[in-house]
Amino acid sequence: MTAESLGDGATLARLRTVTMWLSRQMREPSDVETPITPSRHSTLWAVEAFGPLRMTDLARLEKISKSSVTRIVSNLSADGLVEVAPDANDGRSTLVGITPEGREVLASTSERTDTFFRARIAGFSEAEKVMLEAAVMLLERLATPAEVRPADGLESRGVGS
After folding, report:
1. Does residue 26 or residue 156 have the better pLDDT?
2. Alpha carbons 17 and 118: distance in angstroms, whole number
3. For residue 98, which phi and psi values (nearest 5 degrees)?
4. Residue 35 and residue 142 in contact, taking contact as beta carbons nearer than 8 Å
């Protein structure tokens, strides 16, 4: 791939399409886990990776409005997957933390997704596995929000690594 092939849009279209396909295939429901929407899963993952978080930080990480994150957190809390508690350092703020049940949902989802990928990768050659590892590093750079930088104090604790 060259800069020229990216410029014509064909490679970008392929990247967009393949990421959507993979996302949909990974979200296929399982009978053994709590049904969770993609937005709730993303929020739950962010709380696990970077939390406990203030609602405003969570909204910024998820790139959604504070009212949307409040609704999602309310639903996650009702399901027992997160807990909301006053911020001891700022009485005007609340912190969102993950519960053991929330960790179980993430672990179940991760296990199912890992099984999906292992089955797909099983037929890859060693050279293809090396290329996939390099591709994953590039995708991580594409996916990491600018807000998630060590300077912001929101360093991931390596969840899902």
Report:
1. 26
2. 21
3. -85, 145
4. no
Q: How far apart are CA 21 and CA 23, in angstroms?
A: 5
CB-based contact 121:127 (threshold 8 Å): no
Residue 50 clears pLDDT 80, i.e. is over it:
yes
Measured distance CA(128)–CA(130) in Å, rounded: 5
d(CA 75, CA 55): 14
**pTM for the whole thing?**
0.71
Give me the mean pLDDT over the 66-75 stretch: 95
Three-point CA angle 146, 95, 145, nearest 5°? 10
Where do we find the tokens 């050279």?
127
94, 84 Cβ separation under 8 angstroms: yes
